[in-house]
Predict the structure of ABC transporter.
Amino acid sequence: MTAAMTVEAPVAVTRSRGPRGLLWAMLRLHRSALWFWVMLVALTVGALLWAYGPGGDAAWAEYRAEGCADPNPGLACDYSSPAYQRYSTTLSVGASLLNLVPLLTAAWAGGALIGRELEDGTAQLAWTQSVTPARWLAAKLAVPAALLVPGTLAFTLLHRLVWSSDEELRRTFAWYEWHNDSVFPLNGTVATAYPLLGLAVGALAALLVRRALPALGAAVLGLAMLMYPLISLRPRLWPVETVTTKGDSPEAVGMIVDEGSLTSTGARVPIPDCTGEPGCFATHDIVGFYRDYHPSSHFWPLQLMETGIVLAVAALAVLIAFRLLNRRTGAAV
């Protein structure tokens, strides 16, 4: 009698392909948003390259032809020629598009990325498969962030290239100073931080509302309510420099934070309206003027401080989103 020996065939262990499968599912599901982002990047990069190349050259040619580059420019410099107008329009439209990226990101994240899946139940279906809620949310945030960061960095590098190459020509743009609200974010790391904040706020709004359209509106409104105080706080993020004069008001160039008059005691008071009133300044005990401002050398300290604050707020929003998801699903985050 021979003993029967049973040899069990080795069981093939199927490795989880959750992250890769979720990645491809996201790209396929949101391919329209992906193509929109690619086209926006291509359009903006093309516009900036045009402004840096032929657009800027044509504007320079007209600038010099009108005598604006001479030591004593004529009155013709007060008027914009066609090439100059095209150059100006391209820069202003490009800046407007780039400054809309955070709001567009928040709207998409709150509505289509997360809100629609929570409303339709596809998110709950994914959680019953091999993808945990935490990994699902992490992928929803990581994939768009990986696409937003290089795109916005490309915007920043090209915008800085254009902005730094045409300093003399740019002097005719009263609005195109380094500290202007439409220019300052695009020349530094803030341009990348705000879209990431929009992504985080959109995700949190979707998890709170769990319906696509209301979450879209809540995300845009929430981001706007965060951006306004953050932008208003910008001049206070770094110590200002102060210049004082005894005669006329100071002519310090930069981001003006505060200005006014000085009394004989050194107190700061508003500049009185002394038009047509001889001896008015003496009557008000005005002995000088002051101006608190940020010179251009403060650009990077202000950029880095604001970037740090924005990213900290974004991280807080992400943390709250994970905590909220954990509480509702009971899954370990």
